Amino acid sequence: MAPTTPDTNQRTAGELLPLVGGAGNITSVAHCMTRLRLGVRDRARVQDDAVRAHPAVLGVVEDGDTYQIVLGPGRAARVTRWFGQLVEAAPVTVSATAPGTVPVTADALAERGAALRADRTQRNATPFKRLLRRIAAVFVPLIPALIGCGLIAGLNGLLVNSGRLPGITPALGAMASAFLALLAVFVGVNTAKEFGGTPVIGGAVAAVVVFPGVTEISAFGQRLSPGQGGVLGALGAALLATAIERWCRRWVPESVDVLLTPTLTILLTGLVTVYGLMFVAGEVSSAIGRGADLLLASTGAFAGLVLGGLFLPLVMLGLHQALIPLHTTLIDQQGYTVLLPVLAMAGAGQVGAAIAVFVRLRGNRTIRATIRSALPAGFVGVGEPLIYGVSLPLGRPFVTACVGGAAGGAFVGLFSMLGTKVGSTAIGPSGWALFPLVQGNRGFGVTVAVYGGGLVVGYLAGFLTTYFFGFTSQSLKELNTDPAPDPDPTPEPARA
User: Fold this and answer.
1) H or E segment and range at residue 37
2) What is the domain class of 6-91 according to CATH?
């Protein structure tokens, strides 16, 4: 991928804005690690083909009411900043694509992938999956801080273990730990914002969970401890506060609303939190931690096989969003999540499968060009272009990609059974991008080696199963006929 500059990112934002209907068609602008996430008023005004054809766009994903443009790590945040400024200022009209660029797509696969995305969007329009998306929206904005603090924690650990720079390691430790210590407050703010409450009130009730003074309170015959219940307690407290606040807004007279509504909301929610929610959420959080450890310690290879093999289908169904609070709970409780490295093996299987497709379809320039452009992003954990542009529309390669993910997951899970934990201090990255964030109980070198070994196993298993079982003889013959016209045809001589 070519390097970008601020001017390039600004130009990309300006070029994408008219393609999604202009500033007047945008209701919200946000981003995660790899995607520009837009709320749009009128979906019909979005020019899908032009967006996908833009040189900076790796793919497009529709998830409920959000239109997500995959731009890749780093670029997504920079383009989002410029995009938000353009939306706030005024609609900007610029060229849709950079001069001289020709979109590289495999038309038949793109159409099939678009149909699969549309079908997934329709199936995801259930109350349960909408709830999962809203809960995911609470945690997604926290990912950049989790990544930054996780990297600083890893650097600090290396310095402490090596005995270097003892004067700076306490400061690094404070930087890495402060956000996690107050993670519940940020969860409360985002929960209230997402579910229609006042963000600062959500943060206020969630702050009770981490307040040191709760040690003076007893619930269910036990003394409370700061942080008991973690992010789940904060999530529950903020949801309750939002419900109480909305009830108050309906019934409290306007003349005293500014006094009574926040007071009643914080008072009632706070009492329920300290005398119920913290204890219950603490038990649930502890059970999640024990369950994850027990799962991988006792049935690690089998659990890794299942988790790594089923993660891509979970993504297709939108059910992977239910795992985000689990990851965050494990990070808050143990310092890292042991589930993410196993699930990341699904991306390795996808990459291996794509390489096999590239090798087998030597006669199809369009599919190979699509893989060539999407593969670098796949190596760093951005799998949507390969999934929707290659493996899922082809059918069998999607199944063999899942086999590759299962093999990589089983490899990492096997080492968990043998006593070597591999975790991630943040959520969001996968593939090669996860290397700086891995952490375990055997030292950084061993942990990186196990994770890297899992990726290699996933690549190889995805490649081999796709190479030998990814195509029927008939489909191989059909797909090796390039449907694309000669890009520089020589005109035939005129007939007499």
Assistant:
1) strand 35-40
2) alpha beta
